[in-house]
Every structure is written in structure tokens, then in C-alpha cells.
Amino acid sequence: MSVMQTGGPTTVAGATVVEARALHRLAVGIVRDATRVGAGDVSVQLADRRGDLRVSVEVPVVLARQGTDPVSARADAVRDAVVQGMRDLAARRVGAVDVRFRGVRREMQRRVT
Questions:
Q1: How far is residue 9's CA from residue 58's CA, in Å, rounded to a whole number?
Q2: Quick check: helix, strand or coil at residue 66?
Q3: CB neighbours of 10 closer than 8 A, spacing ≥ 6?
Q4: More confident: 94 or 15
């Protein structure tokens, strides 16, 4: 559990509490959106690293029919999305993001009629 004091003007005293489970689900959603895979294919572990979050991510590599970015560029995109998303949405500082690709998924091409 984490308690965050807000610095903005309020008329009612209080605190914002973000439970560990909520942070975990938020991180899963951020990774899912960044990698375009289902939530069931995303594994995220959160740990404290001297006050910062250390995020470990496991996702499959998505193969698309069109040109694809190298795996290293995809990992950088996941790192950027996690750092920015956790900062913007949860006011959390991420100190490290470890990305591990496991398995392969083919991107399904949808027909539009």
C-alpha cells in the first residue's frame, strides 16, 4: 500500500491511497497497450528499489505481416511506456524496467466489411 500526499489546493483534508494491486493492474494495462497483446500474455512484477519502482515485464514478441521494428526497439518502447505511464497515471517514479520476451504471437489481421 502506498499513501501519497497531494500538493494541490484542496478544501477537504485527506490522502490518496494506491494499493499494490492497483499499481500492478495499471502496469499490466500499460504494457498490454504498448505491446498489443492480451492481458493474459503479460506478466509484470513490481519491486521497491530505494524508493523507486523496479518493473520486470515478460511478453511475447508480436509478428506482424507488415514491416516490424527490431526487438531492441520494441523493448525500448515498452520501457518508455512503463516509465511515462506510471509517472503520469500513478505519480510513481520508475528506476528500472527489465523486459523479457518469451514466445511469439502472430498479429491477427481483422477484416472490415
A1: 40
A2: coil
A3: none
A4: 94
- Using DSSP's 3-state secondary structure scheme, residue 102 falls into strand
Return the amino acid letter for 99: V
Instruction: Retrieve residue 108's grid coordinates.
Output: 491477427
Grid cell digits, residue 94: 520508475
Q: Are strands 94-106 and 52-63 parallel, antiparallel or unpaired?
A: parallel
User: Rounded to two decimals, what is the model's pTM?
Assistant: 0.79
For the residues 94-112, what does the mean pLDDT come to?
Answer: 83
Separation of alpha carbons 104 and 61, rounded Å: 5
| pLDDT band, very low/low/confident/very high, at 64 (cuts 50, 70, 90) | confident
> Three-state DSSP class for 55?
strand
